[in-house]
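Per reviewer request, we include the raw input and output of the structure prediction for the construct analysed in the revised manuscript.
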Amino acid sequence: MYRRRDLIIGAGALAAAGALRAPAARSQDLELGPPWPFDFDWLQGEAKRLAERAYEAPVIRAPDILETIDYDAYQQIQFKPDRALWAQGGAPFPVQFFHLGRYFKAPVRIYVVQGGNAREIRYSTDYFTFGKTGLDKSLPADLGFAGFRIMDGQGTKTDWLAYQGASYFRTSGALDQYGMSARGLAIDVAMPWPEEFPRFTQFWLEQTEPESSHIVIYALMDSPSVTGAYRFDWVKHGGVVVSIRAELYCRKNIARMGVAPLTSMFWFSETNRHQATDWRPEIHDSDGLALWTGSGERLWRPLNNPPSVRTSSFFDENPHGFGLLQRDREFYNYEDDGVFYNRRPSVWVEPLAGWGAGAVQLVEIPTDDEIHDNIAVYWLPKAPVLAGSHWSFAYRLHWLADEPYPPTNVGLVRATRLGRGGIPGQPRPPGSRKFVIDFAGGPLAELHKSDKVEPVITASRGKIDNDYALQVVGTNSWRAFFDLYAEGPDPVELRCFLRLGDRTLTETWLYQYIPFEYPSL
């Protein structure tokens, strides 16, 4: 499980590029190292060379002092806005830097790229205010940074993009509210041995035209099993879209290499209200996994908060895309005006080249609080990931209110609800569970109440009964009902879509039902 307030710091190493010492220069009140030629070809070569050497753990300076910088102390350390990179213009978005602390001890090196030359931005306590901590008097001069954030514009106090911790990054998206995170790579998620967290050890921030709406970021990844060269081209225009190129070089065999990983939180929704112990109606950053398969099928899988770790694989070849979405946008379904779950971004992964055979893998981890990121999804290549292999991936991440390419030929799942099976007023059959699924959009808007729409339902085990569909009164939405009878504790894999004659009307609803009992009254 990933602690969302303290992003995990994975192991990694600082590469030696740009370490040559020379008289320092100043630019916009930042101390810069000497210039040296930089481009992506150099970065890719550096990642390849690094993979041919033994892994070295990062050097952590002043670990005893950093351990004293707990949450309260960290809140007192503030970056001075006038010391930001591009604070006086020259690029569309100023950049501020994060300080190291108890939860972010491993430093990263950060460079500015202008005119094809890179110069290191050197750490200084002069860039920060330290409140009442007195830390500015005891910190070493070469401490380093924990990461950085991209501000909304000149003179603003808010940011829209941040990189901090392992290979984590996130943006506030189309609705200006931070939520789930993405990572550069995931290694051995939910395996019998500990997960490995590759680290971005160095970043290069490329200057772009002040009138543009994009910023280019390069990153070098390092971990015991893999190195990588990354290029991120971020565009902020309404929503936020980033085009990513990743070149990966494996030091070791990797059992489970997750590409384009997304990390989110799901505690409870209308689907699993029996698990709710909070006053709010729903608490989640994402409510489902959407898939657009290589064959063109649209799938929707509501998320679960399972009693034990569950891993689900959706096998495919050259998928069009997948993502963790927040489809429920109604404030009254959350009633939270502090963290605004109704505004959390949906994130869609769009492969830009054929990824071949593999699987979209969903990992769901139990949680009893909203502070933990307990959901992960990523692409898992079918081919084995062996030591010495080189992998190339190009893809986009769309951080939007909705998925970027919604289907027009089928309706979408809008809600999933569970209850006791059977008929009101009659004895409820033991072991039964009623499922109610709402669909809307697409061809459903053209239908009439009298149309003979039927739900097509399959279950991996058990018996389906009392299944039918009807139009919700006063709307163009349709609702599917069915009862499931399944004995024993094993999960049941369910599928459902609506059909009129031989015409498919909706995407396919998938659900992993884990049997449970409601408390007796």
